[in-house]
Amino acid sequence: MPAASAAPGAKGSRAHVTLNAVIISVDGTTPLLLTVHGRSTGAEALPTGYLNDTVDRTLEQVVRRLVSTELGLPVRYFEQLYTFGDRDRDRDRAPAGRTIAVAYLALARHQSLHGPSSPLWRDYYELFPWEDWRHGRPALIDAVIVPALERWLSSSRPDALPTRTERAELTFGSRHALWDPVRVLDRYELLYELGLLAEAPKERQSPGELLGMPLALDHRRLAAAALERLRGKLAYRPVVFEVLPETFTLSALQQVVEALAGQVLHKQNFRRLVGTANLVEPTGEVDLRTGGRPAELYRFRREVLRERPAPGLGLRRLGGP
User: Fold this and answer.
1) Which of 66, 96, 60, 53 lies closest to 81 in space, CA to CA?
2) Domain count, the chain
C-alpha cells in the first residue's frame, strides 16, 4: 500500500497504515483471542489487512473482508477500537516511515478455524495471566509484580513519587485501592514500563521473569485495549450475547461473563441482575446435556435494544476480589 504523503516541507513524516482485527470469543469458560501466523515476524499476530482504494469504501470494510475471506469467520459485531501510531511500534519498518495501526474489536461465536494464515484460538489469559482472578489473586502479582513496583517506587525522584504511587495503587489495586478489572491497558503499559514484558526494549527488560505470551509488534497492547473496552461495555451494552449461541442456559451466560471479566460472580446476585435487566426470555426448552437436572434454555431479548439506551447487565463497576 502506498505510504501517506507528507505535507510540503515536512521531512520524515511518511506513514504506513494497517488494519488489525482483535477478534474475541469464548469457549465454555475460556476467553479466546484469534491469532494468525505473522508473515513478516514469524510470531503469532493479530489478523492484519491493508486498504484497497478500489474496493474498500470504509476502513471497516477492510476488516470485514479480512475476517470473511481469510478466516471464514462470521462476525456480526464490529467497532473501531483505537488508533496506534507510536513512532517505535514497528522498529523493522521505522527507517521507511511510521506504521499506524487502526484496530477494530470484533466478537464472534466460537468455531473451528482454517485458512492460509494458520488461524488459532489462543486463551486470552496466556497473554495476560495477571488478569484472571477467577481462582483468586494470581500468585505472580505478589511474586513478581509487587516487588518490581516497589523497586520502581524506591528509585523515583521525590517529585515523581506521589504520581507513581497513585498510579501503582490504582492500576494494581494495592494498599487502599481496589482492583479495577477494567484497567487492562493501564496495567499492560505499566508492566511494559517496568520491563516485565518481552515487548519492552531489551535494555529495559527485567533480568528475571517476563510475563505472559507476547505477540508480534505491539499486538498484545492492542489486545489489552480490546479487553479493557469489552469489560467496560459489559455494564451498559449486551455485547456478551454476541459470543453465545442462539439459546443458552443461565449458567452458561454467567460463565461467559466471568470468563471475560476475569472474576467469579455471585450466582444469585447475577441472576437477579439478569432478571432486573430483562435481557433474556425462556424458550420453553431445556438442555439435557447438563448431566443432572435439565436446565432451562433462554434467548436474548433483542427488543431491549429499543426499550432503553443502556441495555447492559448493570455491572457499572465489576469491583474487585
Assistant:
1) 60
2) 3
Q: How many CB atoms lie within 10 A of CB 164?
A: 17
The CATH number of residue 258's host domain is 1.10.10.10
Contact 228, 185 (CB under 8 A): yes
Q: Where are the alpha helices (DSSP H) in 195-320?
A: 219-233, 250-261, 267-277, 304-307
Q: What is the pLDDT of residues 177-200, one digit of tens each?
A: 889 999 999 999 999 999 999 999
| Rounded Cα–Cα distance for residues 68 and 115 (Å) | 11
Please state, in angstroms and rounded to a whole number, the distance separating the CA atoms of residues 223 and 215: 9
pLDDT per residue as tens digits for the range 251-304:
999 999 999 999 999 999 999 989 888 999 999 999 877 667 889 999 999 999
Q: Measured between alpha carbons, how far is 317 from 180 in angstroms, rounded to an integer?
A: 8
| Residue of 163, 168, 315 whose CA lies nearest to 253 | 315
Residues 192 and 238 in one domain: no
CATH of residue 92? 3.90.79.10
Cell numbers for 150: 516497589
**Together in a domain, 45 and 115:** yes
Exposure of 110 in the CB half-sphere (CA atoms within 13 A): 16
Instruction: Write out the three cell numbers for 255.
Output: 460463565
Tell me whether strands 77-84 and 30-37 are parallel, antiparallel or unpaired: unpaired
Residues listed for the chain: 321
- HEC assignment per residue over 119-157: CEEEEHHHHCHHHCCECECCHHHHHHHHHHHHHHHHCCC
State whether 22 and 101 are in the same domain. Answer: yes
* Residues spanned by the domain of 284: 234-307
